[in-house]
Specification:
The protein has about 90 residues and is mainly alpha-helical. The protein contains 3 helices and no strands.
């Protein structure tokens, strides 16, 4: 069952445990907002929480990118699909 947001729900919202958890919560917020069923204050709270989740996800992706750079010797290589490499 989806969580209902109140104006102060984002104030005490804990940081997500993982990137996947943050993405799932973000998807849930987007669905609630797109449904147009939230009152104005809850919509603002949902937007604020969504903004926090986007920042969290971006930071997680930056961390992973840094780790990949270390593994690849400070140089990211372009992603090549296995079928493209043979052409």
């Amino acid at each position: 069952m989806p969580k209902k947001l109140t104006a102060d729900a984002t104030d005490a919202a804990p940081a997500p445990a993982s990137f996947e958890e943050a993405m799932a919560e973000l998807a849930q917020l987007v669905a609630q907002m797109e449904a147009g069923q939230l009152p104005l204050e809850a919509s603002v709270a949902a937007y604020a929480r969504g903004s926090e989740l986007v920042k969290f996800c971006a930071a997680q992706l930056e961390k992973v990118e840094s780790q990949v750079k270390v593994l690849e010797g400070e140089m990211l290589k372009p992603f090549v699909e296995s079928g493209e490499a043979e052409q």
